[in-house]
Amino acid sequence: MKKLSKLLFLFISISAFSQGPWTQEKGKFYTQLSFTTIPNYNELFGDPDYAIEGKITDNTIQLYGEYGITNNTTLIVNVPYKIIRHKELVNPCLVGPCPEHTNKENSLGNIEIGLKHNFYKKDWLLSGQFSVESNTGSFDTNSGIRTGYDAFTFTPLFLAGKSFKKSYLQTFIGTKIRTNNYSSNFKIGGEYGGKISKHIWLIGFLDIEKSFKNGDIDLPNSNSATALYVNDQEYGVVGVKAIGEFSDNFGVTASLPAAFYGNNVAKQVALTLGVYKKF
Description:
The chain is mainly beta. It has two helices and 13 strands, in the order αββββββββββαβββ. It has a twelve-stranded antiparallel barrel. Strand 11 and strand 12 (250-263) form a beta hairpin. The longest helix is centred in the first third of the chain and has 11 residues, at 2-12.
């Protein structure tokens, strides 16, 4: 069971959200480099669904790490780098004069740092997590491309999980509290995964965010036209993850979510590929 729990730490951590209750051992370090793409979309969820001018490709290169401060407390750091393209516009500038290449933006997203603490570990593991996303994204007024929320985000989560012989179950519930008059969100979800061969795990997951609609930030018209990191974004997704192990400490991951509802988010499938290493 102890060996399985060590492996489960790797699997739970493949998500940037880090929403599993397993913590890293003291002095141990886990890192993952991943690439996520939402390609060529111009339709978004809404009430009703709506379209934007041109097509956006939203790519993210993400460096994620966890470090065991103690056996029960883990430091979490997540650094996203955004590569966003807004194509097929007659004029790539939505407002104002049109500098060259203004319909492209390569910049940091919202950098996240947090702590996860395990306070119960018998049949079920119960943990709490608190993280802060900083206001490190950029915004180009002409193109309307934004690479992160213009706010700080505070995310408290309650996490629960249980390991079985060759599988695991974990759930989470919490909120995302945003500053600068953005609405806050309620979060809930979970996943169940099992080993289907000697070196491959398959995981199904559910992830829901629902806006409290308690914010009234006034964003520039160009930002509203692209709908990148605007107010009242929410979604419900189901999907699958797969992990291929090259060893106990090194492997590759893939994730494919599909949304069953949303608001102000792309009506397009996102694909994530990653590689992880545990030290």
